[in-house]
Write a structure and sequence with these properties.
single chain, 9-stranded mixed sheet, alpha+beta, binds manganese (II) ion, globular, 417 residues, Alpha-Beta Plaits, Aminopeptidase, binds glyoxylic acid
Length: 417
């Protein structure tokens, strides 16, 4: 690491910005920033200000994403799009998403300070909704940017936990949900590049600051409703019950068991709610989410089929009804070979001595949606604290942040496609 070239002051300032942005939170006790809340709008304003200070022209798109543009050295050049998301999961980590917005802003600020322009125009997209934690709308903002208003129309009726429809939340935030708009013209794009915290322990365990992403795993999310029969906790004999929660509990374990088959397959129940749950009432209705992912579509499809067949069998045996609705699906996305090579070359120039580590991503990223229309590349930054993410302990060191900025700046200066 001693031979690596980076500026520690840039790293310190960068972490300062990440921590400052995390203070724009829906919660007073943790970092939670969900789509279109007041904290989310404040963060949007702060990001726009940093983009302007970095010499960028800034606009906010129809769904609230912030887009900053820095023109190429010569007119008529294509656009290199970079970015990530500024919404978070509930009680999340400060770096997830934000790193991929603030790192390119830091690079453009440096180019601007030196009066440099590169071979392509740079556009930085701060995507307003990727986690989809409030309305269960993963990748809403990148889908809107890539595919236009048609891609989000069916989501507008979704409601948050308070029953507020998405369309109403958009209006309250000064956006017009009825506005029609076109998606990106892929012919204008040179590529999309996303920098992201690794969200796992690989780089940490191998003592590497940065890595090159090879591909991103496919994923689906389903909402499962289990309907049994509510009843008195003291009077209904155990064999006569149709307990929706006991059935759901068995289903959760079936998901865990089937998705423990190995390889890249993973399955998670992240939300489980008992409707009208009361201590002395047999649960009558339960809803839970099932998030299943795998590196390839076939493994994902087979696992999903088995999981829901097992859930149906459990429901039948216990005399409860089950309803399964797919709420989200995203295909696996390979990162373009030429971008992997260029990102690797930049990492190797900044951290000489070993070939850059290449690794796949189990987490989803906006890059998956951009991959539907252009070549994508991703750089991972080491995740501290044992590699935890979607967790308030998630962290990146000042030195690693500075190395990521140095490698991204090197990548931009060599970008001549
Ligand atoms: C995004 O964080 C995801 O992988 O769900
Ligand atoms: Mn995340
Ligand atoms: Mn993320």
């Amino acid at each position: 690491m001693s031979s690596a070239t980076f500026d520690p002051i840039i790293g310190r300032e960068f972490i300062g910005r990440v921590r400052e942005l995390a203070r724009h939170s829906d919660s007073t006790t943790n970092y939670t920033r969900t789509y279109l809340t007041p904290a989310h709008q404040d963060a949007s304003g702060r990001i726009a200000q940093w983009m302007r200070e970095a010499g960028m022209a800034v606009r906010v798109d129809a769904v609230g994403s912030v887009l900053g543009r820095y023109e190429a050295a010569a007119p008529g050049a294509k656009t290199l799009l970079m970015g990530s998301h500024f919404d978070s999961v509930r009680n999340g980590g400060a770096f997830d998403g934000v790193l991929g917005i603030l790192a390119p802003i830091a690079c453009v600020a440096e180019l601007h300070r030196r009066g440099e322009r590169i071979a392509v125009s740079i556009e930085i997209a701060a995507f307003a909704d990727e986690e989809g934690a409030r309305f269960q709308t993963s990748f809403l903002a990148s889908r809107a940017l890539v595919h236009g208003s048609g891609a989000i129309g069916e989501l507008l009726g979704r409601r948050d936990a308070e029953g507020i429809p998405l369309a109403e939340a958009m209006r309250a935030a000064g956006l017009d949900p009825s506005r029609e708009f076109a998606g990106l013209d892929p012919a204008t794009l040179a590529a999309y590049v996303e920098v992201h915290i690794e969200q796992g322990p690989m780089l940490l365990n191998e003592d590497r600051a940065l890595g090159v992403v090879t591909s991103i795993a496919a994923g689906t999310r389903h909402l499962v409703k289990v309907r049994g029969e509510a009843g008195h906790a003291g009077t209904v004999p155990m064999p006569m019950r149709h307990d929706a929660l006991a059935a759901a509990a068995e289903m959760v374990l079936a998901i865990e068991s089937r998705c423990s088959a190995g390889g890249s397959l993973v399955g998670t129940v992240g939300i489980l709610e008992v409707k009208d749950g009361t201590g002395n009432v047999i649960p009558g209705e339960v809803r839970f989410t099932a998030d299943i992912r795998a590196a390839d579509e076939e493994t994902l499809r087979d696992a999903s089929r088995d999981v829901f067949a097992r859930c149906e069998a459990i429901a039948k045996r216990r005399g409860v009804a089950i309803e399964v609705a797919k709420t989200h699906a995203v295909r696996s996305a390979p990162c373009a070979g030429w971008l992997q090579d260029r990102i690797a070359a930049s990492i190797e120039r900044v951290i000489p001595g070993a070939p850059a580590r290449r690794l796949s991503s189990g987490a989803g990223h906006d890059a998956m949606i951009l991959a539907e229309v252009t070549d994508v590349g991703m750089m991972f930054v080491r995740c501290g604290a044992g590699g935890v993410s979607h967790n308030p302990a998630e962290t990146v060191s000042e030195d690693d942040a500075a190395l990521a900025i140095a490698a991204l700046l090197d990548f931009l200066r060599h970008f001549d496609r």
